[in-house]
Structures are given as structure tokens and as C-alpha cells.
From TrEMBL:
Protein name: DCC1-like thiol-disulfide oxidoreductase family protein
A matching Pfam family: DCC1-like
InterPro entries associated with the record: DCC1-like (IPR007263), DCC_oxidoreductase (IPR052927)
Length: 130
């Protein structure tokens, strides 16, 4: 099982999680918000620094931690459809990819807003959230 940690109050992040859920037919991903107790424990367990101001999606896959654009590109590899083709962007240097990632992350609340509520999962989907 791969674990995705995300900003639980960010509308863009919540939409991204919904997008992943809808394309995860092999049921490979579990989710937790970065703000949750389990999210904070996983960050500590995997020694992800700067847990208080982390504004990155974090993927824990096979014991390895991916952050920012590396996480996003690793996630698309496991989605249904043509989405794995986007992993071609891994050919670009990470500092270029992360520059664009950081720009979006820095402005995500301004562009997409915040929300204290998110998708209400069905009982089947509820098991995907830690």
C-alpha cells in the first residue's frame, strides 16, 4: 500500500486526492492529511523534515519517501489510463520541476481556496483514509 500525505484544508489538494481515488482501480493508495495525528507520525517515522510548514504532497511507497514534483510524478505512474505518460517529465531536472511545484504550492490557497470539509467517503472509500 502506498500512502499519500496531503494538505487536508487545501481545495486543490482535496481535488487531487479525489482525482487519484477515481483512477486508483488497483486500490494501491491510502491517504492521510499532513495535519492529522497519523500524518504527523508518518512524517516523523520517515524522518521528513520541517513538519510544521510542509506544503508538499508526500508519497511513501515501498519504504521510500517522495516529495513535491517527485511525489506527483511517482503517483501518476500507478493511475489508470494514460496518466503514467506524464512520468516523462522525470527527464527534466528536479530543481526545474520543483520550481513550478513550489510556485503552485505557495499560491494554492489564493488560487483554489481552503475548506474545512472534504469529500464524504463511502464506507468502501473510508478504509483508504488512515
Amino acid at each position: 500500500m502506498h500512502i499519500i500525505l496531503f494538505d487536508g484544508v487545501c481545495n486543490f489538494c482535496n481535488a487531487s486526492i479525489n482525482f487519484i481515488i477515481d483512477r486508483d482501480s488497483r486500490n494501491q493508495f491510502s491517504f492521510a492529511s499532513l495535519q492529522s495525528e497519523i500524518g504527523r507520525k508518518l512524517l516523523q517515522q520517515y524522518q521528513v523534515p520541517d513538519t510544521n510548514s510542509l506544503d508538499s504532497v508526500v508519497l511513501i511507497k515501498n519504504g521510500k519517501v517522495y516529495k513535491k514534483s517527485a511525489a506527483a510524478l511517482e503517483i501518476v505512474k500507478d493511475l489508470n489510463g494514460l496518466w503514467p505518460v506524464l512520468s516523462i517529465f522525470n527527464l527534466l531536472p528536479s530543481f526545474i520541476l520543483d520550481t513550478f511545484y513550489d510556485l503552485l504550492a505557495k499560491n494554492r490557497y489564493k488560487l483554489f481556496g481552503k475548506s474545512e470539509t472534504c469529500r464524504i467517503p463511502t464506507p468502501q472509500l473510508r478504509q483508504k483514509f488512515l
